[in-house]
Write a structure and sequence with these properties.
Elements: E1 2-6, H1 13-21, H2 46-56, H3 76-92, E2 96-99, H4 103-111, E3 117-123, H5 126-129, H6 144-166, E4 172-177, H7 178-183, H8 186-195, H9 217-229, H10 234-252
Helix pairs in contact: 2-3, 6-9, 6-10
Amino acid sequence: MIYVVLGMHKSGTTLTSQILHNSGISMVESDNQDVSYDKGNKYERQSVLALNMEILGARDYEVRDLPNPKSLALTGKQRAEIREIIDSCSKSHKDWGFKDPRSLYTYPCWKQELPEHRIVGIFRPPEEIWPRFRWRGLRKRYLNPFWAWQFLSRWVEHNECLVNYMQDGNVNCLLIDYREMMASDIELGRLEKFTGLPLKDMRRKELYRTEEPPADFCLALAKYLMRFVKGKSVAKMMEELSSIRTAQYKQES
């Protein structure tokens, strides 16, 4: 089976991919023991990452200013590369997958070529993610209001995509709440049932931050503008994600 892990940056996609990979589902080209939440490779299949960046025309790894494109069209070369990745991984592994937050934008392109597969989605409130994006020093603090707006725009776009994919009746999907995953064994149990495999618990509380961050003026301002400029409510988005997750959980029980 092929597993596509989807979620906003810093939402737990690395942890999810790490659990799957260490439980027998190949998620990266090679085993890298020196992988952690704060270091380089985030359990991403590098061939998928490189192709996603090419498809999106990404100039660098900065995601704050990479909006969801209105439309994507694959070149013949890109489509051939997708097929080559799928063919190579399927020949090498019974169960495999890939994780790259950019796949929330490019998944429709991959879906055109993927055989039967499953989606594992994961979400996290923006308050817990924003501290990883904001500037902490004095030199660029004046940029934080604009960066908060960019960040929240990306958070909304990523999670709008996630909601849409979770509602696709043609693909078997599982939506995980990162906070619940770190607070109890419920989400790990759901993931185990979803894959049908005994999973290795890779959660490490000292690496995966779960404490509630202090209120941030820049993020609060971005939320206000998001609601009154774009008509999008972060609170309603979180409610929708939680509702989808709860509905799935009830069906599984």
